[in-house]
Amino acid sequence: MVVPTEFTKEEERSTARRIDMVLVPVMFVTFALQYMDKACLTGAALFGILPDLGLVQIIAPVPPATDFKLDLSRYSYAQLIFYWGFLAGLIPGVYLAQRFPIGKYVAVTMFIWGGITVCTAAVKSHQGLYVQRFFLGFAEASVSPAFSLITVMWYKRSEVPLRYALWYSATGIGVLVGSLLLYAIGHVQGALAPWKYQFMVIGSVTSVWAIALFFLLPDNPIHAYFLNERQRIVAVERLRADQIGIENKTVKRDQVIETFTDIKTYWYMIMVFAVNLTNGAATGFGSIIYSTFKSTLLLGGAGATMFIWLLVSGFISVFKKNSRSWLGMLSCLPVIAGSVMIWKSNWEHRATPLWGFYLISIFATTLVMILTLMASNTAGYTKKALTSGLVWAAYCASNGVAPLLVFGPEVADHYPTTFKIIISMMSMTFVLLGLFRFYVLRINKKRDEVQQVEKNDADRTAFMDMTDKVNPNFRYEA
Q1: What is the spatial distance between Cα 212 and Cα 30, in angstroms, rounded to a whole number?
Q2: Phi, psi at residue 69, to the nearest 5°?
Q3: In whole angstroms, what is the distance from residue 471 CA to residue 468 CA?
Q4: 332 inside domain
Q5: Which of 29, 51, 174, 469 yields a CA-CA distance of 20 to 30 A from 205?
Q6: Which of 326, 377, 335, 325 is nearest to 356 (CA)?
Q7: What are phi and psi of 71, to 5 degrees?
């Protein structure tokens, strides 16, 4: 039996602070750049990429109609094909992230996708853009599941929601800062089209940051350059009570089987798929609904709303045990209200639909709470890696089909089909989170009735790489 090392509360706090000072900023900047890479196409729609690459077509009227119509189907295909590339890269990405040093692997893939982003400036047609977007998605596929693994590798389960919220909130900052950057690029007068400078700048910054990331992001607590020997031991030992373990490079067949036979896997996937229809169907077309330079700045407010709501929810989850499902359910309600505001309001007065758009961005908090439930309630390193990959695959599939749910001819009616789907999916997620909470707490109660967790036995099973279903000392969080 492994005898755990005793440490004081002050030692733990000091170690946790050191970890936060390095990991949180590094993951935050990385995820912000990834989101800006993905969002470049949405911003470029305002700066000439649509006519330059033939992403918009003018459809002549069929008599007796007299109005010309715009066909944006090529643009929607360019949006969604990124996520199909992301989906294709997930399984090999998750496998390689488990087999290789995870910090170095993330840095290398980031350098590659930065280069692919720069190459967008050389694209001459919509077909070429499709190819570029697919490979960009393929290259970016590793970072989200890798960050999920890194977060539970370094942080206690009670700490996971806030850290998830911190690095995922970078999407909000990415929207806000990205909007300001796009507004500035819109005034560039050079030999190239403004949208080309956008991709070149973001891609170059991404690759430069990837070089720094190679040295800044450690592979695990045992090899953390910013911790001394004693702090490395504390960093590992403080996770013992959580029964999740640290890292294991062996792909275990029994854990693969359990992943696909565990009902919770499909619970996570369905909820993530439902929530992300909001992202793809609404926010992806924000720049078209509000198609002016100034609207780019206004839409940055959605990023700020997302950022603030995520951080507040993350802090609440730290101090209130088993509150993640409640917070996820609560965050569904503003999204439903925002959808109704956009759908039913008068668009001649932009304030109401704009505030509705801001409320829709709160879907990110529901997503993060689901992701933290997945991360904290999945034990066994192979199972964690595979479950994370499957959940992010659901994320990709949702974003990959969502742009198809925006029907151009419905613009006069404010996209009723789109918002009916969003309202339905968020309502379903609200119910599923409530059922999930009941399910896992019921399992905890049954395990408590069978046995009380003995400290010595918990110490023994903590780092045995046992799954949550097999380990009798594991307790789920809601």
Answers
A1: 11
A2: -125, 150
A3: 5
A4: yes
A5: 51
A6: 335
A7: -105, 110
Helix and strand counts by DSSP (H, E) for the chain: 20, 2
Four-residue CA torsion sign, 148, 154, 157, 159: negative
Nearest-CA neighbor of 79 among 355, 400, 457, 445?
A: 400
**Predicted confidence (pLDDT) per residue in 48-98, tens digit:** 888 888 887 777 666 666 666 667 778 878 888 888 898 899 888 888 887
Flag whether 476 is in a domain.
no
Alpha-carbon span 291 to 56, nearest angstrom: 14
Supply the pLDDT for residue 21. Answer: 93
Closest CA relative to residue 389, chosen from 91, 96, 35, 81: 91
Q: In angstroms, rounded to a whole number, what is the distance separating the alpha carbons of residues 183 and 194?
A: 10
Q: What is the pTM of this model?
A: 0.81
Domain that holds residue 277: 9-461
Instruction: Convert 150-174 to b/e letters by CB count within 10 Å (16 or more is b).
Output: bbbbbbbbebbbbbbbbbbbbbbbb
Q: What's the token pair of residue 450? A: 């069978």
In the chain, the number of structural domains is 1
What burial class does residue 86 get, using C-beta atoms within 10 Å of its C-beta: 0-12 exposed, 13-18 middle, 19+ buried?
Answer: buried
Domain presence at residue 466: no
Averaged over successive runs of 10 residues, the pLDDT of the chain (478 residues) comes to: 64 90 93 81 79 79 65 80 88 82 92 94 92 92 86 87 88 73 73 87 93 93 90 85 62 89 95 88 52 56 83 88 94 94 82 85 92 89 87 86 74 82 95 96 89 55 73 86
Do the Cβ atoms of 394 and 270 come closer than 8 Å?
A: yes
* Best CA proximity match to 136, nearest among 77, 195, 83: 83
**Does 385 map to a domain?**
yes
Residues found in the chain:
478
CATH number at residue 325: 1.20.1250.20
Over the range 444-475, which residues count as b (16 or more CB within 10 Å of their CB) and which as e? eeebeeeeeeeeeebbbbbbebbbbbebebbb
